[in-house]
Amino acid sequence: MSVYDDLMAYQRETEALAQVAGRLGWDQETMMPRGAAEQRSEEMAAMEGVLHARRSDPRVGGWLEQAVAVDEVSAAQLRQIRRSYDRAVKVPGSLAQELARVTSMAQGIWAEARAKEDVPGFLPVLAEVVRLRQEEGAALAAGGDVYDALMDDYEPGATAAVTGAMFDRMRPRLVALRAKVLGASRQPAPLKGSFGAEAQMRMARDLATAFGYDWNRGRLDLAVHPFSSGSGDDARITTRVVEAEPFNCFYSTIHEVGHACYELGIDPDYRLTPLGAGVSMGVHESQSRIYENQLGRSRAFTGWMFEQMRERFGAFGITSPEEFYASVNRVAPGYIRTEADEVQYNLHIMMRFDLERDLITGKLDVADLEAAWNARFLADFGVAVDKPSHGMLQDVHWSVGLFGYFPTYSLGNVYAGCLHRALRAEVTGLDESLAKGDATPATEWLRERLQRHGGLRSPRETVALACGFEPDEGPLLDYLEAKFGSIYGL
Amino acid sequence: MSVYDDLMAYQRETEALAQVAGRLGWDQETMMPRGAAEQRSEEMAAMEGVLHARRSDPRVGGWLEQAVAVDEVSAAQLRQIRRSYDRAVKVPGSLAQELARVTSMAQGIWAEARAKEDVPGFLPVLAEVVRLRQEEGAALAAGGDVYDALMDDYEPGATAAVTGAMFDRMRPRLVALRAKVLGASRQPAPLKGSFGAEAQMRMARDLATAFGYDWNRGRLDLAVHPFSSGSGDDARITTRVVEAEPFNCFYSTIHEVGHACYELGIDPDYRLTPLGAGVSMGVHESQSRIYENQLGRSRAFTGWMFEQMRERFGAFGITSPEEFYASVNRVAPGYIRTEADEVQYNLHIMMRFDLERDLITGKLDVADLEAAWNARFLADFGVAVDKPSHGMLQDVHWSVGLFGYFPTYSLGNVYAGCLHRALRAEVTGLDESLAKGDATPATEWLRERLQRHGGLRSPRETVALACGFEPDEGPLLDYLEAKFGSIYGL
Fold first, then answer.
1. pLDDT per position as a tens digit, B121-177
2. N or C: which end of chain A has fewer CB within 10 A?
């Protein structure tokens, strides 16, 4: 065995344990009895302790000094392990465990606070999470920018400065488009009526199948906040069901299928290695968003969905595929990011990005977060927040310490715009397939061009090679202006 | 912090990780997509590697040398940790991991072989499991009896010699009772008809509630082979549903509720410590069997079940509570241990006990197991096995390496007989409660007298103190003769 082989054998067990920890997180959100929350936080902390000790083990440092890469793949494996090791050695194990313990508990506290509209009940644990992440960020940054250090965990190489500049270029076109759309004389009708929960779940399963989700290596369950989880041969998805809002269930499902197809599409040779997972959250989100929006909300695919809904639920007010397409893509004021239309979605992210940077830098105290959120929301969206579950309690993210994560959602949209331009240029007859409820030609192109490479290259490089051009926000904005211009007759 | 505190803090993380590994096993049997089996076996092996390394860590040996017990509880904690450490240091980590990997894979191979009636497809992996367990047993026995060393893992202090002697005393009375019952002129009618799956599951939930199962710290799911899993605040149960066999679903549920109530009934101060789980498999089985049989199959409780079934399923052929009681307790020839009546159940165990000892000692080769099983079954039960799923493929146990486990089932029945005698002597009005569908007075007595103590004392001592007398097979056999004598008019 070479030094490289020793290192990879060790790393394989670490990756397997990371999968176990991930599945424990899945269980917590889907299956765990409520009364187990406190015990679970100790279990999560113990797993994090094991993982952190393995990732920062001095043997890894020794192996990394001596291991020799013989090709592109082994070079990439070593690069990923070195990145993980460098980050792990900077963070004390006790801090890593404390973060796991507190964020596991905080999740339940957030859910209860959201249900009760109880901001004060959430603030103490949020303050604790912010403090721990500040401490972790400072350890990682080693004198550099703390927020950048946190963001780098989700999107290697990304910085607040570059991301902020991109947002500055995007905002004027998005704001202008929103103004035109909301002022247009043609306004699509919203969907009305009640749609049975079981029939929604059956349709959600069929939508997952339409995009090529491999049920032999995954499953669909309910969760308060839909998510996907797991790599290799076990990539699970979740959705939610509200009888008045079937689009919520359907598009959550398609979104999570995008994430899961990425994981399931990675070269099987990379399973349980550092290359065997999506390369970054931004690239991950590019897959979920292109499935959900550019494909799932396309005129062709919504035509098929319209027929499916009429068959399954009977008549429901909308009587033509054109009306249905417009309704699916309807732009309207709203509080909730995850329910936002494509035009406004990134404006939500820009707000979170600014607020969370201020929390991490200490410019904004958690005690003042609600006021800051509500003031900013009124300024950006022209609407006053009516209750905390429509405001700062709407997302689980901060409770679980995901600071630096929100901007990757927008980056994903930008990448999805680029990938969609390339996909359309290369895959002929895609609309004909989509119109028959078959999105697998798109999944196949994405698997071949992007998904299968896993963590082989940097996030930007991964997208650039898939597209054949350097990614920027242009294609996304062009797509949005064309699509919504057409729907709203601008 | 004292040495004892250091050791307990370390041990607490080990216990938390053991809970994680257990939950992974639960997931594998209830939720895991089929295609994830191979990856899962690596995940299980990695967890086992972590657990084994922690349990055999030289620091534990050092702490054990210096730690001082100050009371009964700390003495018991140290005794349990020493036991775990002594076992762990004898088994090489690579063997422990290999066992975890192979048994995780073997489970799926067994399930497939059983579905296809394919003994040859199962033999190679069974041979591998036997070989690994022989190796482990030899390491543990250190020159002593290999089978005893394996059995000791499930039932500390038990030996094949003492168990075999108990079986020798039980067999004549059981065989005589069976002969009288099967030859009786009065024979109860079997249950006939089809009972909707969803209504069965609803009734299963209500049965669990009737025994005081804490839904806030558990859940009920479907599994091929019902089991319970988890300690502390997360003790889950499973059942199965066959439309023609509602008793299968109901009594599997009550059985697993017995296991789960034991775990959930342990003193919360012991959570995530070595005392925080059932003390042995035999004592565990005493709880599941007393719930299932002495309580769940009692005249009083079946009277309530009869009314419940009539309300939920309508008329179903049996028209009186007396007939229903007899039908629930009907003795009939059958192949399957888990479906065996109380009279014949222990005869199944005696057969397994002999066969598995021969496998472990090498007297019986796995290639000859099917022939040996079928010959023995014919001799003991007077019936020729018609297919492997009714024979050696009926149980998951050997595929997952559970050699030395079967005798604890009979020990559990024996302990249940003793506990039932004591319970009936002390809890007045129990039949009145059971007749109203409320078994919680029994759960409360068992919790107070036995369950709450967890691993504080040895298995025998635990039962003896709960009963107020030294346990033996007498009360069980007396109970069986009285009950079946009355049902069959002997």
1. 999 999 999 999 999 999 999 999 999 999 999 999 999 999 999 999 999 999 999
2. N
C-beta contacts of A356-363 below 8 A and 24+ residues apart: A356/A147, A356/A398, A356/A403, A356/A404, A356/A406, A357/A147, A357/A160, A359/A130, A359/A398, A359/A403, A360/A130, A360/A133, A360/A134, A360/A137, A360/A146, A360/A147, A360/A150, A360/A403, A360/A404, A361/A146, A361/A147, A362/A134
Neighbours of B371 (CB within 10 A): 11
pLDDT of residue B306: 98
What residue ranges of chain A are covered by domains with CATH 1.10.1370.30?
160-488
Which portions of chain B are predicted below pLDDT 50? Answer: none
What ipTM describes this predicted complex?
0.93
B272 min Cα distance to partner chain A (Å): 8
Q: Does the annotation count B136 as an active-site position? A: no
Give the pLDDT score at A225: 86
Could you tell me the sign of the dihedral formed by the alpha carbons of B375, B376, B377, B378, in that order? Answer: positive
Query: Residues of chain A whose pLDDT is less than 50?
Result: none
| Secondary structure element (H or E) that encloses residue B221, with its range | strand B220-222
Paired residues of A220 in beta bridges = A237
Of A29, A155, A256, A370, catalytic: A256
DSSP A215-280: GGG--EEE-SS--EE--TT--EEEE---TT-HHHHHHHHHHHHHHHHHHHHS-GGGTTSTTSS-S-
Sheet holding B220-222, edge to edge: B220-222, B236-239, B228-229
Considering only CB atoms, which chain A residues are within 8 Å of B27?
A: 23, 27
Q: What are phi and psi of B221, to 5 degrees?
A: -135, 175
Minimal Cβ distance to B32: which of A40, A234, A272:
A234
Find the helix or strand (DSSP H, E) in which A430 lies.
helix A430-435
| Residues of chain A found within 8 Å of residue B49, distances taken between Cβ atoms | 13
Architecture of domain A160-488: Orthogonal Bundle (1.10)
pLDDT tens for B259-316 read: 999 999 999 999 999 999 999 999 999 999 999 999 999 999 999 999 999 999 999 9
| Of B138, B218, B123, B170, the residue nearest B344 (C-alpha) | B170
HEC sequence for B398-442:
HHHCCCCCHHHHHHHHHHHHHHHHHHHHHCCCHHHHHHCCCCHHH
Q: What percent of chain A has pLDDT over 70?
A: 100
The annotation places the binding site of A for Zn(2+) at 255, 259, 285
Q: Which residues in chain B are closer than 8 Å to A49, comparing Cβ atoms?
A: 13
* pLDDT tens string A92-136: 999 999 999 999 899 889 999 999 999 999 999 999 999 999 999
